[in-house]
Amino acid sequence: MSVETVIVDHPLVLDALTRIRDIDTPNALFRQHLERIGMLLIAEATQTLPTVEGTVVTPLTETSAIRLAVQPVIVPILRAGLGFLAPAQQLLPNADIGFIGIARNEATHEPEPYVNKLPDDIGDRPVIVVDPMLATGGSLIHTLQLLVERGAQQPLTVVCALCAPEGISAVAESGIDVTLFTASVDDRLNDDAYIVPGLGDAGDRQFGAPA
Question: Domain spans of the chain?
């Protein structure tokens, strides 16, 4: 079992990454650039989706065509993962969406699940999990385990704007095969389990700090 990490270094990805890292980027612009980087990363992550050949009728004639063989399942991890939901739906408008909600216990840094809404039938459909940040790996591992229990086929695709090496190691140790698409593997986690240099709390920067 392994984690294959694909670092996407497209100039537009790197520019968007810089803008979401910037402490002076206001919430509205943060959301905009987070969606921008999500769009680019998801496009990269879907390059190997299975396709079928067929035909299409244009206004002039019939010609060959390629379509997706099956629609994938998109799974944002709430709440920060909502920042990648809009670009995922723009690229894959017919995909099914599942939601996993996990809060971080600020004292223990452990994940606390509160929502589990996955499609009943995943079968052999490609699954793409989206979450802007991979820190300790607890939330992602919990989500991946739920998907494997539903019959999701490995490797599972994960899209994160940035990651901590500790999180990647934790996912590798989980025994689940993952292909991870990201713009950056950062330096480390600090004592509060935040990614350094990171971008702060992705949920708070999108939606404001909870009361």
Answer: 9-49+71-207
